[in-house]
Design goal:
By secondary structure, the chain is an alpha/beta fold. The protein has 8 helices and 7 strands; from the N terminus they run αααβαβαβαβαβαββ. The longest helix is centred in the last third of the chain and has 15 residues. The structure holds S-adenosylmethionine.
Length: 214
C-alpha cells in the first residue's frame, strides 16, 4: 500500500516548507556529493523537528550527519540553550556539513564529532531528549543499545530507513544491511523496556520511547 506520487506531493505541499537554508543544503548536496538520496527531505525533517519541539530537547544526538540537513532541521527546533551533537565518520563529508553549519547562526548549536559514532556515544553522558539513528545499518542495534540507557525519561529515539525501500519484507533480499534492519526491527518490537511505532514516512521511520510503568 505504497503512497502514490500524488499523495506524497500533496503531503509535502501541506507541510511547512524547507527554509532557504535547508533548500540550499539540499541543492549543494545534489551538486557536490555522491548518494544525495541519503538526504532527509521536508517530511523526515518535519517529523524530527516535531519531536525536538515536543520534548523541548536540551540535548539531541544524531548518528550520521552527511551534509547536515537533518542536524540543521533539528537545531532550528531547539529551545534556547539546546544543542545537537552529530556524528560523522567520513572527514570529507564532515567538511561539507561543517561549511553548512558555519553558514548559519544555527551552526552554533551544533557540535560535529568526526569518527566512528560508537566511540563518540561512549564518551557522552546524555541524557538525550531526541536521538536520530541514520548511519550504517549494520550498526543500528549497537547504537540503540548504547543510547537507550542514556535516553531521558521522556526522550524519543528516531530510526531512519526501517522499511529499506521494502527490502525488509522481500524474502529474496538478503544483503547484510537488509538482514541487519530486519533483525533490528524485530529486536525493538520484542524489547520490553520500550514501545515503538514504525511509520511509513520516507524510507520508514521508527519512533521508540521508554515503556511507562502502569
Ligand atoms: C544516510 S546518511 C545521513 C543523512 C543525514 N542524517 C540526513 O538526514 O541528511 C549516513 C551518514 O552516516 C555516516 N556514517 C556511516 N557509518 C558511520 C559510523 N560508523 N559512524 C559515524 N557516521 C557514519 C556516513 O558517512 C553518512 O554520511
Amino acid at each position: 500500500m505504497a503512497h502514490d506520487d500524488r499523495e506524497l506531493q500533496y503531503a509535502r505541499a501541506h507541510s511547512t516548507t524547507d527554509s532557504p537554508l535547508l533548500r540550499g543544503v539540499s541543492e549543494t548536496t545534489h551538486r557536490e556529493l555522491e548518494c544525495p538520496q541519503m538526504l532527509s527531505d521536508v517530511l523526515d525533517g518535519g517529523l524530527l523537528m516535531a519531536f525536538v519541539h515536543a520534548t523541548r530537547a536540551a540535548l539531541v544526538l544524531e548518528i550520521g550527519t552527511f551534509s547536515g540537513y537533518s542536524s540543521l532541521a533539528m537545531a532550528s527546533a531547539l529551545p534556547p540553550g539546546g544543542r545537537v551533537v552529530t556524528c560523522e565518520i567520513d572527514e570529507a563529508t564532515a567538511a561539507v556539513a561543517r561549511r553548512h553549519f558555519d553558514s548559519s547562526a544555527l551552526g552554533e548549536r551544533i557540535d560535529l564529532r568526526v569518527g566512528p559514532a560508537i566511540d563518540t556515544i561512549a564518551a557522552l553522558d546524555g541524557p538525550f531528549d531526541v536521538v536520530f539513528i541514520d548511519a550504517d545499518k549494520t550498526g543500528y542495534r549497537d547504537y540503540y543499545e548504547s543510547v537507550l540507557p542514556k535516553l531521558a525519561p521522556h526522550g524519543v529515539i528516531v530510526v531512519d530507513n526501517t522499511l529499506w525501500g521494502g527490502r525488509v519484507l522481500d524474502p529474496s533480499e538478503d544483503s547484510e544491511s537488509t538482514r541487519a534492519l530486519r533483525e533490528f526491527n524485530d529486536h525493538v518490537l520484542a524489547d520490553e523496556r520500550t514501545e515503538c511505532v514504525l511509520l511509513p514516512v520516507g524510507d520508514g521511520m521508527t519512533a521508540i520511547w521508554n515503556r511507562q510503568a502502569i
